[in-house]
């Protein structure tokens, strides 16, 4: 029996780890999975001994608030390796934590595969050298990621981005318009204020203020608000009631809300990549503690925040960051797009290029095969 210890510390990592391990279990039913993760890993049958998703934070310095708990989790994971003796450790995202766990794997003589490894291609390439020194096998999801880790001396497999497998809308656009009772020639904006309360607190009020102004200027305009998993509807309703704008809150239908929208207004993060795969134009917002923004923008010298812009290599979707994130700026860009289909068409074409750079699909299956190979149950090639 193959024993795999998983380490996924955030909502997105939990989702991606669960998708791979579910595929792996279909290939190898006699499989023991245990470790750290969230609800999706638990739902697919993993034995979750630590769930840190409740203390996941936005930003670098904010994470220090929960530093004691993070180190306690790290100690417990190291002890689990010694006690349960896994054949393989599957590290998914959660970079600062999983880099330390990768080092422990090296010291304890246990193989490790890192899916969504530290973004050394974006900043701080020394992290790639560290992961190479730890002997961690890298499952690269971006082509530039593969290059940076190979240059650092790591063993790398380019598996492609799993969102190409996961982001799908089964219904045709016409069916969805009927489902959501959209009228003829009605334009649609979908709001995605984030999956954490910290993001929602900083972004949603101004998103709704902009929506109220746009509704006044455009009579045939429908506004949807996406409710992220784990976010209470009553919490979102408190913002909507205060704004007094007519908004329909929808749960568990993010991709449908992207598909029917002329464009979305979204928090920076995974949602931007999901929308890019569906070729949905987007206006990206980001507002964090100034300490975190300073670190990202000036110390690490990140030119863009939105993943579509990073992958494309230049700005194709607007980014309203920090002081630029204002209601008036949201309204100006959104109104211009509502009045100019040509601009939206141009963005859609550029997002197609982003999609192509992510690979041809099949990442989940390739990563599952990689785990089997590293676990000694499948020959390479």
Helix run count = 17
| CATH homologous superfamily classification of the largest domain | Glycogen Phosphorylase B
Report mean pLDDT, rounded to a whole number.
Answer: 91
Categorize the overall geometry.
Answer: elongated
Straight-line N-to-C gap? 22 Å
Describe, in plain words, how this protein is organized in 3D.
This is Lipid-A-disaccharide synthase. Keywords: Glycosyltransferase, Lipid A biosynthesis, Lipid biosynthesis, Lipid metabolism, Transferase. It catalyses: a lipid X + a UDP-2-N,3-O-bis[(3R)-3-hydroxyacyl]-alpha-D-glucosamine = a lipid A disaccharide + UDP + H(+). Condensation of UDP-2,3-diacylglucosamine and 2,3-diacylglucosamine-1-phosphate to form lipid A disaccharide, a precursor of lipid A, a phosphorylated glycolipid that anchors the lipopolysaccharide to the outer membrane of the cell. The chain has helices spanning about 10-25, 40-45, 65-85, 95-110, 125-135, 145-150, 165, 175-180, 195-215, 235-245, 255-260, 270-275, 290-300, 305-310, 325-340, 340-355, 365-375; strands at about 1-10, 30-35, 45-50, 90, 110-115, 135-140, 155-160, 185-190, 220-225, 250, 265, 280-285, 320. With about 375 residues, the protein is of the alpha/beta class. It folds into two domains: about 1-160 and about 360-375, 3-Layer(aba) Sandwich (Rossmann fold), CATH 3.40.50; about 175-355, Rossmann fold, CATH 3.40.50.2000. The chain has a seven-stranded parallel beta sheet with strand order 3-2-1-4-5-6-7, with helices on both faces. Strands 10-9-8-11-12-13 form a six-stranded parallel beta sheet, with helices on both faces. Helix 1 packs across helix 17 (about 365-375) and helix 3 (about 65-85) packs parallel to helix 4. The longest helix is centred in the middle third of the chain and has 21 residues, at about 195-215. It is elongated.
């Amino acid at each position: 029996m193959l024993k795999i210890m998983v380490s996924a510390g955030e909502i997105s990592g939990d989702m991606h780890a669960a998708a791979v391990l579910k595929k792996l279990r279909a290939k190898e039913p006699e499989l023991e999975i245990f470790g750290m993760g969230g609800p999706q890993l638990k739902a697919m049958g993993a034995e979750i001994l630590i769930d840190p998703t409740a203390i996941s934070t936005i930003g670098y310095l904010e994470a220090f608030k929960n530093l004691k708990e993070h180190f306690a989790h790290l100690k417990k994971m190291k002890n689990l390796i010694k006690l349960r003796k896994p054949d393989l450790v599957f590290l998914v995202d959660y970079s600062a934590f999983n880099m330390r766990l990768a080092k422990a794997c090296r010291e304890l003589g246990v193989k490790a595969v890192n899916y969504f490894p530290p973004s050394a291609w974006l900043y701080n390439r020394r992290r790639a050298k560290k992961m190479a020194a730890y002997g961690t096998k890298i499952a690269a999801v971006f082509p530039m990621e593969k290059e940076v880790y190979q240059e650092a001396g790591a063993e790398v497999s380019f598996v492609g981005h799993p969102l190409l497998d996961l982001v799908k809308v089964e219904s045709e656009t016409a069916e969805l318009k009927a489902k959501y009772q959209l009228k003829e020639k009605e334009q649609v904006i979908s709001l995605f204020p984030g999956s954490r309360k910290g993001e929602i607190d900083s972004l949603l009020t101004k998103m709704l203020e902009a929506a109220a102004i746009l509704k006044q200027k455009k009579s045939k305009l429908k506004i949807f608000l996406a409710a992220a998993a784990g976010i209470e509807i009553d919490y979102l309703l408190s913002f909507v009631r205060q704004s007094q704008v007519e908004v329909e809150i929808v749960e568990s239908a993010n991709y449908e809300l992207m598909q029917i929208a002329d464009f979305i207004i979204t928090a920076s993060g995974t949602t931007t990549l999901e929308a890019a795969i569906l070729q949905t134009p987007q206006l990206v917002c980001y507002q964090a503690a100034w300490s975190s923004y300073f670190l990202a923008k000036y110390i690490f010298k990140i030119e863009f925040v939105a993943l579509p812009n990073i992958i494309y290599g230049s700005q194709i979707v607007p980014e309203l960051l920090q002081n630029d994130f204002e209601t008036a700026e949201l309204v100006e860009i959104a109104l211009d797009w509502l009045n100019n289909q040509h601009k939206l068409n141009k963005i859609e074409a550029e997002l197609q290029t982003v999609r192509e750079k992510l690979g041809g699909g099949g990442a989940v299956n390739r990563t599952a095969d990689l785990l089997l190979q590293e676990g000694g149950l499948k020959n390479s090639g």
